[in-house]
Fold ER membrane protein complex subunit 4.
Amino acid sequence: MNSVTSSQNLSAAKSFKQRKWFIDLNRKPEKFSVVHQIENIQPVGYTDKTLADTSNPEEGNRLIGMRSWDIATGPIKQVPMNMMISWMAGNSIALFPIMFVGMLLFRPFQSMFAMSKAFETIESGQNSILQKLVYLLGNLVNLAIALYKCHSMGLLPTYASDWLAFANPQERLEYSFGGFSLN
């Protein structure tokens, strides 16, 4: 029986050496104890080799320039979405279109006042003035979309009757209903 136990120990030792992590479930004194193995075991994919530093100082400047242009063109990238949402909201005076117009008016002002904060994480480069100008123009385009939406909803005072109490409001020239024109 002693030879059987020693052969089991040898086979356990072989299996222990073949596996990196091993839990011996047959040990009686400590149930479910982890059998410690050779130190300096590295996880899968780890190597001790060091890689040479191939970074280029010009690469960092190029990445900073790309990031600053990405920030500068951010408001222009919002223009198609703002146009789509303003079209989807419709021209009726209701809760959703009013909330949208308020948001559309508020965001460009908010980002124009926080322009220095948007660009503070990036060093001032050779195109920083041009980038800030593009950022400002993008916000002005979004503001123009908001003002057009306000005008199409009738929220801007553009007629004389909006300002003067004695002027008659503009009369409708025609009414349409269900695809038919009623004069």
Remarks:
- The longest helix spans residues 128-153.
- The two ends are 112 Å apart (CA to CA).
- Residues 109 and 120 are 18 Å apart (CA to CA).
- Residues 71-156 form one domain.
